[in-house]
Specification:
Elements: H1 6-35, E1 40-55, E2 61-75, H2 102-130, E3 133-136, E4 142-143, H3 148-152, E5 159-163, E6 166-167, H4 171-178, E7 186-192, E8 195-201, E9 204-205, E10 212-213, E11 216-217, E12 221-224, H5 228-254, H6 266-278, H7 281-300, H8 307-320, H9 326-354, H10 357-365
Antiparallel strand pairs: 1-2, 3-12, 4-11, 5-6, 5-7, 7-8, 9-10
Length: 366
């Protein structure tokens, strides 16, 4: 897209990123609904007036709205739950969402976030299998004066190949071998230039935890291409790790350890989409995977309106043996809508501030 002006590249990249995330999320709901015997009346990507639509043989209307900021799957009977007898002219017995068991409804609702997690794992796996997984190498970058590595004669540029006869290819493997061996001699196989040599290093104990350390810095990032099975395993594990890191970041913002200015909205996503797209397809794919994880986690938050809020309602229904009252659900949805609106306002304010719009406006006032 180098031939396009920057604003158009940003818009196209934003549409691609958001379109993929929304399509996969809603497809999860759609396929789960079909699996559990729920009739889907509409599958929509975007809101507002349709720029494209068609109805398939099952009676599901597929459409693309002109406002690409979301999407939805309209399931038969979902909006009429608890409102009395359905209209016999349009009712499809046995295919209404609210007629299904609480377990079936939970499966349909949870499938959207689950598909986003799966998308992230698949994209990570694809990158690891084609371009390679980033790993810290065992090449020595610096040697601390007076350290075990210095006394053993290691130099910057050396590459550590094995420790005590065990091959090491990653810096984390090196760390795992050295840390429990404080004060114990370790045989280090090193490649220096074209030659290989063995030296003996005795790791010193760190004062804070007593773990062994050689006294080197390394870990320069290299890419290791994985076979398909290893790539799937690594992609799945990386998805889990990123999910944990994301939740940790959210907790740090809630507890005040990090600022709320890190919350971003559509404008920041659009800006980052354009910037990442210029860095190449691998960066764009990785960015989509990261956003897919964020979308899954956000939707699983126990906030009414979101998928996680519905799952909380279904859990309460399973425990109580009957749904929450209509009034309780109404108040919960109002509270959830207010919370989401507040977060959206905050995210938009952060976006405008970061883009300099707020500063530009206030310059006229002041």
């Amino acid at each position: 897209m180098e031939f396009l002006p920057e604003p158009f590249r940003t818009l196209i990249s934003f549409a691609v990123v958001l379109g993929v995330l929304i399509f996969v999320h809603e497809m999860g709901h759609y396929l789960a609904a079909r699996w559990r015997g729920v009739h889907v009346e509409r599958f929509s990507i975007g809101f507002g007036r349709a720029v494209w639509q068609r109805t398939d043989a099952r009676g599901c209307e597929w459409r693309v709205g002109w406002i690409p900021l979301g999407g939805y799957v309209k399931m038969h009977g979902m909006e009429h739950a608890g409102e009395g007898d359905p209209d016999p002219a349009t009712h499809r017995p046995g295919e209404a969402f609210h007629e299904k068991s609480v377990g079936d409804r939970a499966i349909v609702v949870a499938a959207g976030p689950i598909f986003n997690f799966l998308l992230a794992a698949i994209l990570f796996a694809g990158v690891f299998a084609t371009v390679g997984q980033p790993v810290g190498s065992t090449a020595v970058q610096t040697v601390m004066a007076g350290s075990a590595a210095d006394r053993a004669g290691l130099q910057p540029g050396d590459r550590i190949l094995a420790l005590d006869g065990e091959p090491v290819a990653r810096f984390d493997e090196l760390q795992r071998h050295i840390q429990p061996r404080a004060g114990q001699p370790v045989e280090v196989l090193v490649r220096r230039g074209e030659a290989e040599m063995k030296v003996i290093a005795t790791p010193a104990a760190r004062t804070e935890d007593g773990r062994g350390m050689l006294g080197i810095t390394g870990g320069a990032m290299e890419r290791e291409r994985l076979d398909p099975f290893s790539a799937v395993a690594a992609g799945t594990w990386h998805m889990v790790v990123v999910s944990g890191q994301t939740l940790q970041g959210v907790w740090q913002m809630i507890s005040g350890q990090r600022g709320a200015d890190e919350i971003g909205g559509p404008l920041r996503i659009a800006q980052l989409s354009g910037e990442v797209a210029e860095m190449g397809i691998v960066s764009l794919v990785t960015f989509i995977a990261l956003l897919s994880i964020n979308l899954a986690l956000i939707n699983l938050f126990p906030i009414p309106i979101l998928d996680g809020g519905h799952l909380v309602f279904y859990a309460a229904e399973a425990i109580r043996g009957r749904p929450l009252t209509a009034r309780a659900q109404e108040y919960a949805f109002r509270g959830g809508f207010a919370l989401l609106a507040t977060l959206m306002i905050l995210a938009t304010w952060n976006d405008l501030t970061q883009l300099g719009v707020v500063r530009w406006v206030t310059s006229f006032i002041g």
